[in-house]
Amino acid sequence: MNFTNDTPIRLAILDLYDGYPNQGMRCIRDIIKHFAAAHNLYIEVNEFDVRQHLQLPDTSYDGYISSGGPGSPLDSVNQDWEHRYFSWLKSIEDWNNSDELKKKFVLFICHSFQLACRYFEAGLVCKRKSTSFGVFPVHIVDSGFEEEVFDGLRDPFYAVDSRDYQVIKPNYEKLEQMGGKVLSIEKERPHVPYDRAVMAMRFNKYFVGTQFHPEADAIGMSHHLLTEEKKKAVINEHGEAKWASMIEQLQDPDKIVWTHNHIIPNFLQSVAFSL
């Protein structure tokens, strides 16, 4: 079924920010708004506060975007919100495995991606030696060159990374059973003896996730980093050179602007124009 401007597309945004101020939700809303306008589509969007208010969507939506968020993706084990989140994920998985013709698409971002990797046992979720924060190159691996959400991206492409945790040691046997694959990995660091983290993964035909923030936009990130409070925080934690480098890279149209303009729009394309 292809949607037209007379047929509403129903999207659910799962907010995992736990009430913390963030740029992510605004960016996701803006991308959806611009995609709808560009394709002359009516998109109905509902948001669900997963961690604060235990809100989860039902199976009536065409697509789902599950956001990033603060804190550890390991400490939520046995918490009520995580139980409900995994129950929701199971309900979408069951729907897609049923005889229903119209399948449900899900995009997992950062914190949600780490949770999905735990749920599917797709890799080892663990704490990083140090925080990854900045604009970094992301390298596409062989299977990623045919990935539809990467359509139009270059290798490497650039993305905003902000995390204390990571997914390493992908479970290739499990991924093969699910119809999944690793799509991209972080930059090579030959001077340190650490595994390269998985930066994007397809879990199955309808579920895909990124460790980075594909929604990040240059204008919002620049305003955020130029506030006196955030500037001081970044410089105190990462140094002035890191702050200045981020400001410079945010202006480059070939870096996060390119990523922002491709990955989530490509995902929405799958939702809107799939059979």
Your description of this structure?
- It is globular, with a radius of gyration of 18 Å.
- The chain is built from 10 helices and 9 strands.
- α7 crosses α8.
- 37% of the residues lie in helices and 24% in strands.
- The model has no long low-confidence stretch (mean pLDDT 91).
- By secondary structure, it is an alpha/beta fold.
- The chain has a single domain, classed as Class I glutamine amidotransferase (GATase) domain (Rossmann fold).
Fold topology:
Layout: E1 9-15, H1 24-39, E2 43-49, H2 50-53, E3 63-66, H3 80-96, E4 105-109, H4 111-120, E5 124-140, E6 157-168, H5 172-178, E7 181-186, E8 198-202, E9 207-210, H6 218-226, H7 228-238, H8 240-250, H9 256-260, H10 263-273
Parallel strand pairs: 1-2, 1-3, 3-4, 4-9
Antiparallel strand pairs: 5-6, 5-7, 7-8, 8-9
Helix pairs in contact: 6-8, 7-8
